[in-house]
Amino acid sequence: MPSRTPRSDAPVGQQSPAPNPGAHPSASPDAAPAPAATRAARLRQALKFLTVGGLVFFIDAALYNVLVFWDPAHGFGAGSRGVLNHVPLVAKTVTIAFASVLTYLGNRLWTFNDRPAPRTWRSIVVFALVNVAASGLQLGCLGFSRYVLGLDSALADNLSGTFIGQIVSTAFRYVMYGRVVFPKR
């Protein structure tokens, strides 16, 4: 059994605890969680974030398609035009705003519920700013497809604005939510 010897930086009379031969080198009462535990916690958090995002993704996509491609008289189909078909960026802005409210609630109450309660106004303002930037990324994908490439079908809109735009904005949101919207403090 190793002997207990005073640490060179410890005050006289204090001794460092005996090392545990089977413990991880960084394992101590004050040490950070083991890397495996940290990875598992991050994975759980990422899966929660993706679950919230996935549910809201379907709501966003459905609402966008109703606004842009659903004709109240004819439903969906070839040539159907929704009430906002002529302004798809406005339609996407409406759906993103609605989805952002749902995303905030889901992430605040479930994904990041282990974080300290935010200062409400600060959290909401920062969340809004992050979502404005993320929305710009998503709208940029839709706008590029519609106005640069000239693609205006339901498939093109859903691929560019809803699918590709969502991937880009979701990656941005995940990083920013964890760092500035719901920080660990």
3D structure, described in words:
The chain is an all-alpha fold. Helix content is 63%, strand content 0%. The protein contains four helices and no strands. It has helices at 35-69, 88-111, 120-148, 154-181.
Secondary structure: elements and pairs:
Layout: H1 35-69, H2 88-111, H3 120-148, H4 154-181
Helix pairs in contact: 1-2, 1-4, 2-3, 3-4
For this entry, give a set of tags.
185 residues, mainly alpha, 0% strand, elongated
Structural category: mainly alpha
Distance between the termini: 40 Å
General form: elongated
Q: Which ranges are low-confidence, i.e. pLDDT below 50, for 5 or more consecutive residues?
A: 1-14, 16-28
- Number of strand elements: 0
So what's the oligomer here? single chain
Mean pLDDT, nearest integer? 81
